[in-house]
TrEMBL record:
The lineage of its organism: Bacteria, Pseudomonadati, Bacteroidota, Cytophagia, Cytophagales. The keyword Transcription does not apply. It is found in: Secreted. PANTHER family: POLY-BETA-1,6-N-ACETYL-D-GLUCOSAMINE N-DEACETYLASE, PTHR34216. This is Polysaccharide deacetylase family protein. Its main location: secreted. GO terms for biological process: carbohydrate metabolic process. Keywords: Signal. Residues 156-237 form the NodB homology domain. GO terms for cellular component: extracellular region.
C-alpha cells in the first residue's frame, strides 16, 4: 500500500502541525478492531443450518458454508465417474498392479463401485498419496479392485457422503440473501489429489456451475477443496478458478497457519497479516476454543478461521449445540473482534493492501483520491480510514457524492482524529470543517 501527500500550510493550522494535517491510514481491520474471526462450515449438513446458523444470527454474525452440491435434492449435477468402461479397467487391474501411471484413473473409479468400503478405499488411498506414502496408496487401490473382481462387481452408484437429509436450494437462497456466504466444496467430497484430470475438473467445475446457477456469480469468490488439501496439482486448478481458497492463499502479505500448525502469539511472523485455522472437533474443550480467541486479541494482525463440520449429532465430529452457543456468545462478547465471512475478511485485507490514498489540504477542506487496481465486481467491502484533522476543527463532516455525514472527533493526545468508512469503488471525497 502506497500513500502520497501534498502538504499545504492552510486550514489555520500552525506550521508545527501542518505536516500532520490530513495524514490518513487504512485501518488494519474495520472499525479499528484488533482481530478478525471467520466461522466456516464444511459439507452442508442439516444442523449447520437448523442449529448453528440461528445462533449466529441471534448474535449478529454471518457464516461461510462450503457445500457439496451433488446431494442437494434439486441440484442439476450429480456425482459421476468419467472414463473408460468399468469392465475394461477392472480387467486391466487384474493383470497390472496399480502404479503412478494408473493410480488416478483407478482411484477416480473405485469410489463409485457398488461394494462395501468403496469410498473408504478411495479416501485412505488419497490420504496416503498426499502424505507421500505412494506404495500404500497403490496397495489400497489394488485391494479394493481385487475385491470387486472377486465378487464380479461392475455396477456403480453415487457415493453418499452427507449424513442425514440435506436442505434444498430454496432454503439456501434465503440464507444467502441474509448475508451468509456459500462456496464450492465439490460435487461429492472426493480426495481431489488422486482424481484424474477429467474427474477432478468435473467435481470443481460442476459444483461451481451449480452454485452460480442457483445463487449467482457473486457466490463463487471462495472455495474449499475437501480434506483441506494443499496438493500442488489441485491448488493449481483451484486458484485459477476462484479468487480465494481456504486451503491456501498465496499472498505476500499473509502468513498462513493451517489446522495442523501452531500459533505463538508472541512470535514475529514477518507479514502484515496472519491467518490461523482451527478445526474444533467433538472432543475439543470449550477452554481451548476460548483460548484461540484470547490469543488473537494479544496482537492486531491475526485472522482466526474456524472450521466446523458436524453439529448436534449430524455430520463428522459433531459438536453439541450447547457448546456452539456458549462459544459464539463468548466471541460476540469481545468488542475488539470483527466477525466476517471468509470472503469479507479476504476482500478487506486485499483492498487495504492494494489501495492508494492521496490527499491535499485545500481552503475548503481536505481532499482525497482513492485508487485501487482490484476487480470492482469482487472487491466490495468498505474500508475504514483514520485521518488527522486540525486542532481548531470542532466539528467535521465527510462529504461524498453530494452527501454529508457528521464524524466524531477523538483526541489521541497529540492529534485530533476521525475514523470513518468509505464504500468500495469510491474515487474521491473530502473532509470539511463545520
Amino acid at each position: 500500500m502506497r500513500q502520497f501527500i501534498t502538504f499545504l500550510f492552510l486550514l489555520g493550522a500552525s506550521s508545527g502541525l501542518a505536516q500532520e494535517i490530513g495524514h490518513t491510514s487504512i485501518q488494519k481491520w474495520p472499525e479499528n478492531k484488533k482481530a478478525a474471526i471467520s466461522i466456516t462450515y464444511d459439507d452442508g449438513t442439516l444442523n449447520q443450518f437448523h442449529k448453528a446458523l440461528p445462533i449466529m444470527e441471534s448474535l449478529g454474525m454471518r457464516g461461510t458454508f462450503y457445500i457439496n452440491t451433488g446431494e442437494i435434492p434439486s441440484s442439476k449435477y450429480r456425482a459421476k465417474f468419467i472414463g473408460r468402461e468399468v469392465q475394461e479397467i477392472l480387467e486391466e487391474a487384474s493383470r497390472i498392479p496399480t502404479n503412478s501411471e494408473n493410480l488416478f484413473e483407478r482411484a477416480s473409479l473405485i469410489r463409485f463401485l457398488d461394494m462395501p468400503d468403496a469410498v473408504s478405499y478411495h479416501d485412505r488411498a488419497g490420504a496416503a498419496f498426499e502424505q507421500g506414502r505412494y506404495e500404500q496408496a497403490f496397495s489400497l487401490i489394488d485391494e479394493g479392485l481385487a475385491y470387486a473382481n472377486s465378487h464380479n462387481i461392475i455396477e456403480m452408484k453415487e457415493p453418499q457422503i452427507i449424513d442425514g437429509p440435506m436442505i434444498d436450494w430454496d432454503e439456501i437462497r434465503d440464507y444467502a440473501q441474509r448475508g451468509h456466504e456459500f462456496g464450492v466444496h465439490t460435487i461429492s467430497h472426493p480426495r481431489l489429489a488422486v482424481l484424474d484430470h477429467e474427474n477432478l475438473l468435473y467435481e470443481l467445475e460442476k459444483c461451481k456451475e451449480e452454485i452460480e446457477f442457483q445463487l449467482g456469480k457473486e457466490f463463487l469468490f471462495s472455495a474449499e477443496c475437501p480434506f483441506g488439501t494443499e496438493d500442488e496439482r489441485v491448488m493449481g486448478y483451484a486458484l485459477e478458478m476462484f479468487p480465494a481458497t481456504r486451503n491456501r492463499m498465496p499472498e505476500l502479505f499473509l502468513h498462513e497457519i493451517n489446522r495442523s500448525g501452531s500459533f505463538d502469539p508472541k512470535s514475529d511472523y514477518g507479514k502484515s497479516y496472519i491467518q490461523w485455522q482451527r478445526g474444533p472437533l467433538s472432543r475439543t474443550s470449550s477452554e481451548l476454543m476460548r483460548s484461540w480467541v484470547d490469543d488473537i486479541l494479544t496482537r492486531d494482525d491475526t485472522w482466526l478461521v474456524l472450521v466446523f463440520h458436524g453439529i448436534e449429532g449430524i455430520g463428522w465430529e459433531a459438536i453439541p449445540e450447547s457448546i456452539i452457543k456458549e462459544y459464539f456468545k463468548y466471541i460476540a462478547s469481545k468488542e475488539d473482534v470483527w466477525v466476517g465471512t471468509f470472503a469479507e475478511v479476504t476482500k478487506y485485507m486485499r483492498q487495504r493492501m492494494n489501495t492508494d490514498v492521496s490527499w491535499q489540504n485545500q481552503n475548503d477542506g481536505i481532499h482525497f483520491e482513492i485508487d485501487s487496481k482490484l476487480d470492482p465486481f469482487w472487491y466490495t467491502v468498505p474500508l475504514t480510514l483514520e485521518t488527522v484533522v486540525p486542532k481548531n476543527w470542532k466539528n467535521v463532516s465527510l462529504v461524498m457524492e453530494g452527501k454529508k455525514q457528521s464524524l466524531e472527533i477523538r483526541n489521541s493526545g497529540k492529534h485530533n482524529l476521525v475514523v470513518y468508512n468509505i464504500p468500495a469503488g469510491t474515487s474521491s471525497f473530502k473532509l470539511i470543517k463545520e
